[in-house]
Amino acid sequence: MAVSRKPVFQNLPSPPAAEKKPVSDTRHGIARSDDYAWMRAENWQAMFKDPSLLEPELRRHLEAENAYMEAAMADTVALQKTLFAEMKGRIKEDDSSVPMKDGPFAYGTAYVTGGEQPRYFRIPRDADHRDEASRKLLLDGDKEASGKDYFRLAGLDHTTDHRFGIWGYDDKGSEYFTLRIRDLESGEDLPDVIENTGGGGVWAPDGKSFFYTLQDENHRPSKVFHHIVGQPQSEDRLVYEEKDPGFFVGVGGSLLDDFIYIDVHDHETSEYRLLSTKDLMAEPMLVAERVEGIEYSMTEGGDVFYILTNDGGAKDFKLMEAPVEAPGKENWREVVAHEPGRLIITHMAFARHLVWLQRKDGLPQIVIRDRQSGEEHAISFAEEAYSLGLQGAAEYETEVIRFSYSSMTTPSQLFDYNMSTRERVLLKTQEVPSGHNPDDYVTRRVMAPAHDGELVPVSLLYRKDVALDGTAPCLLYGYGAYGITIPASFSTNALSLADRGFVYAIAHIRGGKDKGFAWYEDGKMKKKENTFKDFIAAADHLVEQNFTSYANIIAEGGSAGGMLMGAIANMAPEKFAGIIAAVPFVDVLNTMLDDTLPLTPPEWPEWGNPLESEEEYQWIAAYSPYDNVGAKPYPPILALSGLTDPRVTYWEPTKWIARLREKAPDAGPYLLKTNMAAGHGGKSGRFQRLEEIAFEYAFAIKVAGKM
């Protein structure tokens, strides 16, 4: 069909022409040819650690794509600077957290004016955190990042006696973290250097050793090691190794310092092992053997463990307890029953209370149970749509937990909550230095009818003075994978669009858990296409209700949401004025066939295993964006990637853009921006990241014809 779009890209130079080098592949008797398979660097493992190893031909191509993108976006440079200034102006530059109390100290983070990285500090437990003179600087992120193109901290975890701290950093964007040990009194790092870790570690109670995960050559956290302070990494003891490449390993600790947790998981199955801190050299004890499709997680509650699980058909999860001395599945006893439609997301245990975060009727709730009386209550909120964050506490013996609250119009608020008296104390409200009046904006939640009668929630933000007559531009965001729920939270960045007359919309599509676990199940594996159809239904509903028009909708999604962007581009290109696909997972079939890639085996339960199953091969082949590109009226498309991204490798969007140009040369244009010094999350600094968002929003504004 003919599509009328604003002629916003004119007089462009010729785009880079990617060479075609066909590679044939046959699976289950089905033959395919991939002209751009050569874009996958054969030395990708080494290149992620040292980007200078990128093959010259690939580097030339990516640099040519960046040059073309810059030419296409040249007229937005001033707008980008304006957007960046607006976004930066809404952030309190010298901001600091409210420190969390732990023993004799309280620990927090702060930023300085112009700083990109956090600074970790502590104060005496009852000191006023606003008194900077009382702060002891533990780690200066800006100092550590000096001279590096990319730098990301993995936090600072202190010992029980508060003497030492583990801190980690990634300076390539490849998510291989190096760990260091800092003497928190002197501020000096010990000689110990632990490389290629998953980031962070868990101290043993005596502060003389810690546990960490090691990434293998395919970037999978598959081993847990025990490091004794002062010894070389080569002498670290292997505590646990996961042989199945389809599972990742994590390590954590309990508030009581009694146990080290080793969790083994993929997207639908989990298994725990426990190591008592009374005998660090013991063999970790298996709690409940993994069973496909059964998940469980644990937290310690003194003489019992509380276990969150979907075992026994509890699709939306239930809470169990088991004695600490015998936590095996045969001893699990129900504490909070399964309630269909009430999804329990996470749980915490304290000396006198059990706490959990749940989602019911599409909204989050925090529920408190008195462990002695069994009495329960939920913390109540007034707004129609909102977001909650449960931080809990760093101490087991406490009556007070911490949580955050925001909505699309209400800046984030941080509260301390007394679980016994039910007193709520506002600690901090997010400051917007340039000013923000919530009354100038409207937030709504509408329900879009899907193709099969389901109702898809859509959260909206727009200014009160916007005419809802179909003329407003709209940025429609979606994700829809891994059960991740996109919250209706406050975004200072989105205000830059709302203030320019945009309707900012979030489609809570299937693949997330926005409406419970069933909402997730209906958007994965064989039912994956529901995710894409839901997003298109959201666009249709916004047009039908006169919030916008097809000629004014810009779609946006990243990572698995980038797959969504590629799919809706193929399915309904005429319904979008533009598409922004950040680090887009678009070469789904090839990636799921490549079991050497970091995330492939653990992701088979999410998408299917095309190596083993012809049926699952066919599912993926039917929607994989790269494989379904055709001669269609695609809108302008902006794809963003990071050279050292281990999650969605740079060659996925690079191949996709090349094929779009080949199959639909008269549509588009198709722009590729590759960050040559970053990975999956883009730039690492808090203001550097704003530059990237300003670039994406400038594309949306340009495509909408609102420059």
Descriptive account of the structure:
This protein is of the alpha+beta class. Helices cover about 20% and strands about 30% of the residues. It is built from 13 helices and 38 strands. The strands form 9 sheets. It has an 8-stranded mixed β-sheet, sandwiched between helices. Helix 3 (about 75-90) crosses helix 13 and helix 7 (about 530-545) crosses helix 8 (about 560-570). About 50% of the residues are buried. It is an enzyme of class 3 (hydrolase).
Topology:
Elements: E1 23-27, E2 30-34, H1 44-49, H2 56-72, H3 77-89, E3 100-102, E4 105-110, E5 119-124, E6 136-140, H4 141-145, E7 152-158, E8 164-170, E9 177-183, E10 189-197, E11 202-203, E12 209-215, E13 221-228, E14 237-241, E15 248-253, E16 259-265, E17 270-276, E18 285-286, E19 296-301, E20 304-309, E21 318-323, E22 333-336, E23 342-349, E24 353-360, E25 363-370, E26 376-378, E27 387-392, E28 400-406, E29 413-418, E30 424-429, E31 441-449, E32 455-463, E33 474-478, H5 494-498, E34 503-507, H6 517-521, H7 529-544, E35 553-558, H8 560-571, E36 578-582, H9 588-593, H10 600-607, H11 614-623, E37 637-642, H12 651-663, E38 670-675, H13 686-703
Parallel strand pairs: 33-34, 33-35, 35-36, 36-37, 37-38
Antiparallel strand pairs: 1-2, 3-4, 4-5, 5-6, 7-8, 8-9, 9-10, 11-12, 12-13, 13-14, 15-16, 16-17, 17-18, 19-20, 20-21, 21-22, 23-24, 24-25, 25-26, 27-28, 28-29, 29-30, 31-32, 32-34
Helix pairs in contact: 3-13, 7-8
